[in-house]
Amino acid sequence: MIQRLILTLAALTLLGTPAQAQDREVPYWASLRANEINMRVGPSADYKIDWVYRRKGLPVKVVRVMEGWRLIEDPDGTRGWVASRLLDPARGAMVIGQEAAPMREDADASAPIKWQLAPGVVGTLGDCARGWCEMTVGKRSGWVRQTRLWGAGEP
């Protein structure tokens, strides 16, 4: 059983873990790949689980790399270790602040508001320029001020 698990993990490593999310200089942004991910107190499955994330797409900051493990920081500032294969190189963002963030038709404060995004809403991050980021939440997309997004900008 253990040998089969080791062989399966080795095959996954050789056949296509998301290398682009693995071999970059830290810090960098990533997002959670699965609906449930264990954050551990150390860089191994032997370490105690400190937290369980249940939010696929949540943006995280990778602050340290150790073999197949990444020390991440979440939007609340909590740090812990996750297996690198559970991180997605696709950039996500989360709305921050106390009030809803307007999602606009264009990257302009005078552009019509399409939707109001509640704090904590997570979406896929597109291009950012001049203080605005394109963001997609479900089937809706538009432009949000970069200062209202955790996961946008320099890590």
Fold topology:
Elements: H1 2-16, E1 28-32, E2 37-40, E3 49-53, E4 59-66, E5 69-73, E6 79-83, E7 87-88, E8 92-95, E9 101-104, E10 113-117, E11 122-129, E12 132-137, E13 140-145, E14 149-150
Antiparallel strand pairs: 1-4, 1-7, 2-3, 4-5, 5-6, 8-11, 8-14, 9-10, 11-12, 12-13
How would you characterize the overall build of this protein?
By secondary structure, this protein is mostly beta strands. The chain has 2 domains: 18-89, Roll (SH3 type barrels), CATH 2.30.30.40; 93-150, SH3 Domains (SH3 type barrels). It has 1 helix and 14 strands, in the order H-E-E-E-E-E-E-E-E-E-E-E-E-E-E. The strands form 4 sheets. The protein has a 5-stranded antiparallel beta sheet with strand order 6-5-4-1-7, with no helix packed on it. It starts with a helix and ends in a 5-residue tail after the last strand. Residues 27-90 form the SH3b domain. InterPro entries: DUF1058, SH3-like_bac-type. Keywords: Signal.
Give a quick precis of the structure.
The protein is mainly β and 155 residues long.
| Helix content class | under 10%
State the helix count: 1
Mean pLDDT: 89
Could you tell me the CATH topology label of the largest domain. SH3 type barrels
Please name the fourth-level CATH homologous superfamily of the largest domain. Answer: SH3 Domains
Amino- and carboxy-terminal Cα gap: 40 Å
Described by strand count, sense and barrel closure, the largest sheet is: 5 strands, antiparallel
Gyration radius over CA: 17 Å
Main sheet strand line-up: 6-5-4-1-7
Low-confidence stretches: 1-21
General shape: elongated
CATH class of the largest domain: Mainly Beta
Q: How many strands in all?
A: 14
Q: CATH architecture of the largest domain, please? A: Roll
Number of domains: 2
Protein name: SH3b domain-containing protein
Signal peptide: 1-21
Keywords: Signal
Domain SH3b: 27-90
